[in-house]
Amino acid sequence: TATGGRYDLIVIGGGPGGYVAAIRAAQLGLKVACVEKRSTLGGTCLNIGCIPSKALLDSSELYHLAHHRFQRHGIKFANVELDLGAMMGRKDEVVTQLTRGIEGLFKKNKVAWLHGFGRLASPTTVAVKAADGVETFHEAGHILLATGSEPTELPFLKFDGHTVVSSTEALAFDRVPDHLVIVGGGYIGLELGSVWKRLGSKVTVLEFLPRIVPFADHEIADHLLRSLKKLGLEFHLETKVTGALISNGANANGSGVPPAAVVLAESKSGEKLEFPCDKVLVSVGRRPYLDGLGLAEIGVEYDPKSGKVKTDSHFRTNIPTISALGDLIDGPMLAHKAEEEGVAFAELLAGKPGHINYDTIPAVIYTWPEMASVGINEQQARERGYDLAIGKFPFTANGRAKAMDETEGLVKIIADAKTDRVLGVHIIGPRASDMIAEAVAVMEFGGTAEDIARTCHAHPTLSEAFKEAALAVDRRAIHI
Ligand code: FAD
Predict the structure, then answer these.
(1) Residues 375, 423: contact at Cβ < 8 Å?
(2) What Gene3D superfamilies does UniProt report for this protein, alphabetically (predicted)?
(3) 16 Cα nearest atom in ligand 1
(4) Ligand 1, closest atom to CA 334?
């Protein structure tokens, strides 16, 4: 053991929550260190989450377009070939550039990176165990827990890193699986399913619930389901996975190469189903990563069932010198939510009025078309008893979408009929991920559908569909 430094703030975890909090606190004049056990900063998001998945989604979409859509634009190829190694290499390069970028930002802002595994040794001490096993003890005025989350395992379908895998391995397959079975119809499964389907796999999604992405607006989620089916993904809803026979190709069945796995499931009516495949992606959710953090020893309260660390509205745990944020606490497990919390936490710690509005956190699924939403959906608005005015506008009637040959989807605005205030916006369509930002800004300002309707939008752009949907709230859309 050795004695380390003394800091105003020590952050454990260098993901979007932790690194943003560290940088903002340093900007505000605090002496800050961040403990990260990985060899790169950026957490799940940059290393094995948001960024590599989007890199593969973009690459695989281009491959898909080259195969199926470029001809419509009058672009012909003699041959379209996949170089999976090069595609993965580009993804890795993007990740490396961005994680190095965070390292640069740490240097610029004088945030010390303590390499190693962090553990609470006291309410104001963090023990950091380096790769060589040596532990150093660092003192802090305040400690921020930002250790993120890990994939949830199914007890009857445990990860083996090869055949039964989590998103981490599914972002780095070295060949295109013949048949990928995905357990769980949430956004991670649907995004990775899209990637491998576009690259040539047969993809089957097994979902226990009657709907995919059950928290989304039903109309928009139904549209997404249709669109993914059109891409060729196969869905079995209300289907319970019960286990799998894993042979990894060892028990030849006399019909050529045996499947590496047979996923066993049961339909709602009790019918037994079998899905022979070569990879199984289990994407049924994520849970807070608390291993070895020393919460129980120090007495930091957390929910033993969900693993979520208990915090108040200022991110404080029951121990006054210890706070927590990001995937570790309540709320959507999203990088931008963690980042907003990081900024708000640092500002509060520095005695400023840090703030986060949980009602205006957008959610995006980066399939193609993309699905993006903010605020409440139609089901929730009806449950809450609002008198609703809903405006919709399809991309088939949008000039730019036509020019792009991307006319799938619609914009749906849900407004309070009494006040016209926007309660939620739900988009499925091209670049919905970028379009939703305008809806977030309007809602953040407490805006109305009329505010959007009276705002000039450049022509021809996809965002005109947003304006037209706002006009449609008052039944005066022009182009439909
Ligand atoms: P993390 O990013 O998980 O970071 C925690 C860090 O802490 C890790 O680097 C870990 O190594 C480190 N750590 C943990 N314990 C210790 C310890 N004891 N000592 C030292 N270091 C430790 N979100 C989006 O908003 N958009 C997306 O498109 C998106 N796509 C995703 C795709 C996939 C495949 C996955 C898995 C996730 C995706 N997410 C996405 C979710 C997003 O990655 C997380 O919400 C986000 O990373 C949470 O940030 P965090 O800072 O709380 O934790």
Answers:
(1) yes
(2) 3.30.390.30, FAD/NAD(P)-binding domain
(3) 51
(4) 45
Q: What is the DSSP letter of 3?
A: E
DSSP-derived 3-state class of residue 178: coil
Task: State which amino acid sits at residue 126.
Answer: V
Nearest CA to ligand 1 atom 53: 148
How sure is the predictor about 259, in pLDDT bands with cuts at 50, 70 and 90?
A: confident
Exposed, middle or buried, 169 (CB in 10 Å: 0-12/13-18/19+)? middle
Pairing of strands 202-206, 32-36: unpaired
Are 30 and 8 in contact by the 8 Å Cβ rule? The answer is: yes
Calculate the alpha carbon distances from 165 to 91, 182, 223 in Å.
Answer: 19, 10, 28
Q: What is the mean pLDDT of residues 106-132?
A: 98
Nearest CA to ligand 1 atom 45: 334
For ligand 1, say whether the CB of 342 is within 6 Å of any of its atoms.
no
**Residue-level pLDDT at 75:** 96
Does the annotation count 459 as an active-site position?
yes
Strands 112-115 and 422-429 come out as unpaired
Pairing of strands 363-365, 370-375: antiparallel
130 half-sphere exposure, CB direction, 13 A CA radius = 12
First to last CA, the chain: 71
C-beta contacts of 381-384 below 8 A and 24+ residues apart: 381/414, 381/423, 381/424
In the structure, what pLDDT confidence band is assigned to residue 3 with cuts at 50, 70 and 90?
confident
Whose structure tokens read 């019909």?
255
Distance CA 185, CA 206 (A): 7
Q: Of the candidates 418, 396, 393, 417, which has an alpha carbon nearest to the alpha carbon of residue 406?
A: 396
Specify the 3-state DSSP secondary structure of 6.
Answer: strand
Q: Which of 222, 373, 358, 196 is nearest to 283 (CA)?
A: 196
Which DSSP letter does residue 38 get?
S
Give the span between the Cα atoms of 89 and 77, in whole angstroms.
24
Q: Give the per-residue pLDDT at 257.
A: 61
Q: SS3 helix, strand, coil % of the chain, rounded to 5?
A: 35, 25, 40
d(C-alpha 306, C-alpha 322), whole Å: 20
Q: What angle do CA 409, 363, 342 make, to 5 degrees?
A: 155
